[in-house]
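Standup, Tuesday
Yesterday: got the pipeline producing structure tokens again.
Today: sanity-check two examples.
Blockers: none.

Example 1:
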Amino acid sequence: SSGINAEYGVDENGKKIPSSFCDFCYGDHTNNKKSGGEEKMISCVDCGRSAHPSCLSFEGSLAANVKSYNWQCIECKSCSICGTSDNDDQLLFCDECDRGFH
């Protein structure tokens, strides 16, 4: 986890505005500072933190899957079934989609 504790703004619909910088390498969509190449970032639907999938060690189908739904970062992760983060020490994370489950 990075040292950034950012609070991002919200748009006119109350949705968090995604950060334009990776929370891990501090690059952007045109420059992943770890790989030196371009890489589209994913952003947490709850807090707006962004990251390159490769900076999160997401590869293959996992990297593709997290772009297909409202992804949550590790700090905001909740159970995909009950919607809470109660007993967060008991949340399991799917290796195929990174969603959390009790």
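Example 2:
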Amino acid sequence: MGCTGAKPAASRGAQDVVGVVDGPAKAAGGRRTAGAKAQRGALPVKTPSSEVQVAISQPDVAGSKVARQGSSARRKSRSWQDSVLGCVRATEPGMANDGKMTADGGTPSTTCDPTSNPATPETSDDAQSYSPSDNEEKQQQRDFMSKLSSNISLVLSEALSGFSPGASAFDAGKVLEAHRKLSDSDEEVAVDEGEGQKDRQDLRRRTLRIYKRFKDSLNELEPEDTDEWIIDAESKAGIRLLGEELRLRFVIEFPDCDPLLTFVALCEHDLSQGYMPEIERVEALSEERPADAVWRVIKKSKWTSKVEDNIRWISAVDALDEPEAMLWVSYYAGDIPDDKALPAPVPGSTRSWGSRTTFGIQRRNEGGCCMTCSIITRPSAASCSALAMSPCWLVKRTARGELANFRDRLHKHLLECKELRDRLTTSCRASLYQEVLDHLEAKV
């Protein structure tokens, strides 16, 4: 099962947007080259304002011609930005060149030629007396072209992601950014109005689920109240028994391991037997989105001594631009869509829905990475009773041992697993890894 996303819709979206931006130039009958030259910085011919004033005072034909040239040059300079702005507004459904909705809710035809010179009212003498300098006009054109490029890139990016607000950010792992875009759009998606609508509804549900899990996990990774925690001073590993729930938290330093490779190791869960020996089998059930997948994990729990056949979401978030400044991965149980057929548990096993594990990876300034880990599980009643009656020194040793075992096995996996490095380019999440790599390099 590959990370297919919504490619058919994406292809159509890209063609539609390119048609809006490029189509009018083709319809202009050979004016594409002129428009391209103007966008590259070709400036309209200008006449000094003093020359224009003299020409206006002379009634002869030559003076009138000079006046017309000066007025035309200034009108051309002003209309250049209006004409290009029309190209951007033309990509917004239902918006006319003046930014207002048309009567039928559609978009009027717009000539997308920056060199076009539509008729405009004659300017006053005061307006004619001002002529911007070459440097000012060049800077105005550069600034405007920069804004135009950003707007077109945004439109194309969303088009290639199926016209769903936040889709491109979601697939790049920037789920918090996707959540902000969905909140801003406040779109209501119908359930039975075609595949495109269903894809948008699916994206919304995924975004809301991961956003909630991310926010809930912050206090798990960095507890606000540590009074009831038993913390080992040597390893900084902490353990807490809260009712039937056991919580462990520890921080691991990997001075010789890349943060991206650590991120990849946690996402490629079918390779996790290399550092989680209790796992017997792992199977991907759904990998439709690079940053969000459903996995089946069969393992023998060290806390209950029983075989568990669990269904877990594994979600990844690039939160490098957020206040937490980390790469985030979480394994957790959650609502599975009705259209996902789940396999029955293997005979003799149980299916747990309460445990969750979360990792926060941060790059160290001196090299390598630092990983904070939170594990929350529900041990058997006997395990809870034994732990509750244990002296503090024994609980601390238990926490310290859990940390050392996990750290050493994961470290060896990161350094020696060749297939892990291959997954950077061969995995269905390769596009996500490339986005994260680019983001890490940009943050240096």
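Quick observation on example 2: The beta strands are 230-231, 238-242, 245-254, 279-289, 292-300, 307-319, 326-332, 356-363, 369-377. The two ends are 35 Å apart (CA to CA).
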